[in-house]
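Can't paste images in this forum, so I'm doing it all in text. The chain is below; anyone willing to post the predicted structure tokens underneath?
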Amino acid sequence: MKKKILMIVACVLLLTVGTVAGAATQAGGIHKENGQAVPVDGNGNGLLLRLRNRVCDMLGICQGGCNLTELTGIFVYDQVNFFIDDVELHFGPQWYITSAVAAEDYDGDGDNELIIDELVGLVGAEVTVEGHLQSEGWMSVFTINGMVYREPGQPIWAAEHHWRWKHGQQP
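Text version of the structure:
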């Protein structure tokens, strides 16, 4: 049993480091400030906060309790992250949103596509999301236009999903 737990922890750490490193490389050390891309300075300005937010998002941790906030505005994608105004929206790890088929037709085109395609289909439209603000300007999204994207708590891409145990499913 201990070996299984250690393997799960190791996998989560590898996925976390890989996702964070990939995001930092892909973003070129840039974050969004007042709607403008701003390079992260050599002192790591904001890098540790971004790392904490990414880990919390990936593991389904809501810092300070899972208080949900609703946000409405024009949905924007800068080829790295999604935004409404100055709030960076997160839907889980990049590998997940580019490989999993969406449970709902979020963009309303009649097809359930990969999550990334559903999200890109919303770009330029007014969208209402509900989620947890991990920090100022960073939201882990739980609903899109009133449709559930994921439930608060441990997400489906994490080691074990609660739904499986609540409904008597075996691993």
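The chain has five helices and eight strands. The chain has one domain: 2-153.
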